[in-house]
Amino acid sequence: MEFAYVAALLGVFYLYAGGKKAVQSRERLEPMMGWVDTIPMWLVRCIGAVEVLGVAGLVLPPLTGIAPFLAVAAAAGFAVLQVLATGLHLVRGEVRETGLNAVLIALAVVAAWLATLW
């Protein structure tokens, strides 16, 4: 049951953030995500699509009972994504912005661990 709560929390975050990256213009994203000015827009869209698909990989396998190992892979993928995002923030000198990344890494690691118990 704990996995469901962590997966729901990660799912809501990544559906929101990934959905915005997938469909909004650079100008609409910049106030919230200053890093989009240094990344090609096609890559921002790809990151958004990966985040939305990651939610499906995190939530659907445990719900359907089909290939539950995919939930572990999706959670691990979110952890890797946030490690890379932390690196980007550090390269840009945005140390203060890494707090959310640390929380998301921790949640993704917990989700991966809980998914192995599911």
Automatic annotation (TrEMBL):
Q: Which UniProt keywords apply?
A: Membrane, Transmembrane, Transmembrane helix
Q: Which domain of life is it from?
A: Bacteria
Where would you find the membrane-spanning parts of this chain? 41-60, 67-88, 100-117
Membrane topology per record: Multi-pass membrane protein
Where is this protein localized, as stated in its record?
A: Membrane
Where it mainly occurs, coarsely classed, is membrane
- Supply the InterPro entries for this chain: DoxX
What's this protein's name? DoxX family protein
To which species is this protein native?
A: Streptomonospora arabica
Lineage, uppermost ranks: Bacteria, Bacillati, Actinomycetota, Actinomycetes, Streptosporangiales
